[in-house]
Amino acid sequence: MKTNTIFNIKTLAIFSFIWLFASCTNLDEVVLDEVLGEDTSNPAGALAAAYDRLGDGTFVDHGGVFSLQEYTTDEAILPTRGSDWGDGGKWRDMHEFTWKSDNAIVVDNWNKLTNGITRSLTAIQSVEESSIPEKKLFLAEAKGLLAYYLYTTLDLYGQAPYRDPMNPNAPLQILKADTQIDQLIKDVEALVPDLAEMGTQQTHHGRFTKEAAYGFLAQMYLNRAVFKDRLNASSSFNFTEAAVTGTGTDMDRVIYYTSLLINSGKYSLESDYFKNFARDNEKGKELIFAISQKIDYIRNGSNSFAYVCMERNQRTSAANRGTNAACTTPEFFATWDGNHDDPRFQQKYQYGDGTWFMNDGTDISVPATDIVPKSANLPWFHFNRGIQYGLQYGPILLSSGSLEMINGRIKVSPLVMEKSTTTRMDFTPSLTFKNPAQAVFAQNEINQGARIFKYEFDPEGGNGNSNVDIPLFRLGGIYTMRAEAYFRKGNTGQAMEDLNKLRTSRKRESLYGGVAGKALTSIDQTVLYNEIGFELYWELYRRPQMIRFGKFDLPGTAKSASEPYRRVFPIPQSTIDVTKEFKQNQGYN
């Protein structure tokens, strides 16, 4: 986590050590003690362990929740590329909708999320039994984290385990999404008075604050209708149901909570959209609740969301490369037709001497003056951001282990695929699978697929590590939630106003005159759906969005039309075998 946080995670709980909270009365970070993770008598350590589960692969790795929320949609696909990424078919299962209860991704994410539930319950118990001055605050945060892990588990699996943390003899309860969503909403609303406002009591966007609760409540109300009627065959969800508390409908509560954030004055939209996902985004103006990451000797943040799309011969330095795994689909790429000039689609990089990396065959060299942080003076090459497609260019790694140089600058050359050296690196938006139902490329086809370079590749700590904070709730997404709520209430004018706020607040790079995005002149459901995708692609929101809009079951690239039961994942068979209280979800028996 960042050095300005109230606490740092030193390593995994149970398996390692934890840095504890600094005193809430001391603005300087102080390490009070070190304890083993299983020592739950220290409430700060127990709460730190609950936070740690967010960033330990769960929400920051492409094999974590991302796999379930994105690889099952039109935004992302991880095909088998020749001899790479077969892995027993676990990745293809996600996009081909062939997963079963023993799929490794399904099982691993269940274990991560239920471990988050357990850690949160442990933190609640530890804080409740303490007499620390921060008891009320820490307890509210622990309960907020519990609700977040429970919600995510219920969203993905339809069921979640719970046990009363204050009763050692309490029986295991199996919560169900359709009945528990209302209780979760009431639970989080009840926490708000005890939570800190962001920026007070040493809080920041890595803590569960009042503002995080507002974003979370808006999310729950937006998806409440789906939770209550998930298998509705026609996707005719009742978004006009009376709200759990307060006045009006679910959509009125979405508008209420999103407006609290939008009107708070604490956040503002970045004119440079990609600053939200940069290695120095810890002071990001849009971040409401995020996973704070830091490269250090303790816990190195994850570079997964950037690394997973970059090709192995795309090198930010002589010590870094990509892995040629994921890409987007032709369907999602096509939603951008007529919008390639949107500032969120793509952005070219400019070096300090004014050189732009055009990536179009005209580049000869770029300056070698940018140096990889904490490296042995390694030159840093910057790839462009956003959705990258077509022929690719960049530096070549020589047999000497250095990047090819020309006149003291990094030479830019046409790139080929590392594992198919006669195949030009051409990220084709189309995907030509021999068997349309299976996401498998021949070795000479491994170049295919437009790539998502949304998160900045951080070369500081190796291919896998990063300082980029991962947003869970940010202001741009809050605007999309309010726009959707307005639209579902029939207020298309205000929905379009929110979408245009997003469009026109973003500006293109100075190469294109710094012009703002173009405003919409009309809106319908397709426009709304596409605009949400433009703002939130690659941010773990697509699957719930597709379900709400009735698109998740439709056929697509390497996917046949699917049954409604696939809107949730199966409970791992290994869990059912040892925990008889769980019954398998419909369709997976």
Description:
Strand 14 (405-406) and strand 15 (409-411) form a beta hairpin. The protein has 15 helices and 22 strands. The protein has helices at 43-58, 65-69, 90-96, 104-128, 135-157, 177-191, 210-228, 250-262, 304-307, 330-335, 475-488, 492-505, 525-536, 542-548, 573-578; strands at 17-19, 34-36, 80-81, 159-162, 173-176, 287-291, 346-347, 349-350, 356-357, 365-366, 385-388, 390-391, 393-394, 405-406, 409-411, 413-414, 416-417, 420-424, 426-427, 440-441, 451-453, 470-474. The protein is an alpha+beta fold. The protein is globular. The protein starts with 16 loop residues before the first strand and ends in an 11-residue tail after the last helix.
The percent of residues in helical segments reads 25-40%
**What best-fitting shape do the alpha-carbon axes yield?**
globular
Radius of gyration: 24 Å
What average pLDDT do the residues reach?
Answer: 92
Main sheet summary? 3 strands, antiparallel
| SS-based class | alpha+beta
Q: Tally of extended strands? A: 22
Termini, distance in Å?
42 Å
Strand order of the largest sheet: 7-11-21
Tell me the strand percentage band. Answer: 5-15%
Q: How many individual helices?
A: 15
Poorly predicted sequence stretches spanning 5 or more consecutive residues: 1-39
Task: Describe the structure using short key phrases.
alpha+beta; three-stranded antiparallel beta sheet; 589 residues; disordered N terminus
Summed up:
The chain is an alpha+beta fold.
Annotate the secondary structure layout:
Layout: E1 17-19, E2 34-36, H1 43-58, H2 65-69, E3 80-81, H3 90-96, H4 104-128, H5 135-157, E4 159-162, E5 173-176, H6 177-191, H7 210-228, H8 250-262, E6 287-291, H9 304-307, H10 330-335, E7 346-347, E8 349-350, E9 356-357, E10 365-366, E11 385-388, E12 390-391, E13 393-394, E14 405-406, E15 409-411, E16 413-414, E17 416-417, E18 420-424, E19 426-427, E20 440-441, E21 451-453, E22 470-474, H11 475-488, H12 492-505, H13 525-536, H14 542-548, H15 573-578
Parallel strand pairs: 3-20
Antiparallel strand pairs: 1-2, 4-5, 6-22, 7-11, 8-9, 10-15, 11-21, 12-19, 13-16, 14-15, 17-18
Helix pairs in contact: 1-4, 1-5, 4-5, 5-6, 5-7, 6-7, 7-8, 8-11, 11-12, 11-13, 12-13
Protein name: RagB/SusD family nutrient uptake outer membrane protein
Keywords: Cell outer membrane, Membrane, Signal
Pfam families: SusD-like_3, SusD_RagB
